[in-house]
Amino acid sequence: KQEVTQIPAALSVPEGENLVLNCSFTDSAIYNLQWFRQDPGKGLTSLLLIQSSQREQTSGRLNASLDKSSGRSTLYIAASQPGDSATYLCAVRTASGGSYIPTFGRGTSLIVHP
Amino acid sequence: EPEVTQTPSHQVTQMGQEVILRCVPISNHLYFYWYRQILGQKVEFLVSFYNNEISEKSEIFDDQFSVERPDGSNFTLKIRSTKLEDSAMYFCASSDTQETQYFGPGTRLLVL
Prior knowledge:
The structure holds two protein chains of two kinds.
Chain A lengths: L3 E4 L2 E5 L4 E7 L4 E9 L5 E8 L4 E4 L2 E6 L4 E6 L8 E9 L7 E3 L3 E6 L1
Parallel strand pairs in A: 2-11
Antiparallel strand pairs in A: 1-3, 3-8, 4-5, 4-9, 6-7, 7-8, 9-10, 9-11
Chain B lengths: L4 E3 L2 E4 L5 E6 L6 E7 L5 E8 L2 E5 L7 E4 L6 E5 L8 E8 L6 E2 L3 E5 L1
Parallel strand pairs in B: 2-11
Antiparallel strand pairs in B: 1-3, 3-8, 4-5, 4-9, 5-6, 7-8, 9-10, 9-11
């Protein structure tokens, strides 16, 4: 059974810092991995999707990498801003017997203070 | 920009009552999903729906749950006889392929 762990659970940084959020998974037979942000009391917003054959994806100040062999993905946020404050979730879809059910981590709660 | 909408935003019900949560997916999307998030817990997959039938479901999605696409725009989740532990935020999502999913804002369900 796929297990997804996100470290750290919480992070508080001053504006302008570059950040790395970590996601690890136990079963490397993944179909894809998706990073989301969740604002308090709101739904999830997709940030980046990495296919199992890809190593990284970039969107603006965000860069996500994937290392299947070690079971890890990182989300890099450059030049953080207060508007980046949110919970960041990692979701892994495991390719197992025709099933693609996603498994989520608990998330990293990020606060960027001015 | 097209978005997934959900109604109601909040629902309070008595234990044992039936509830129907409604979702309007993005119009050209073909895959539909329900997730739940118990307060302070992980987001959990419930069910996926494609071509008018369930394509996958999790262990959580037992006989108390059902989904339906009653017309060309709505996608509903019904809980037949609610339990206290069904209290959670329920998210609907849709996608045009099995790739990036777009989530709605959620319905917060409270069972008393």
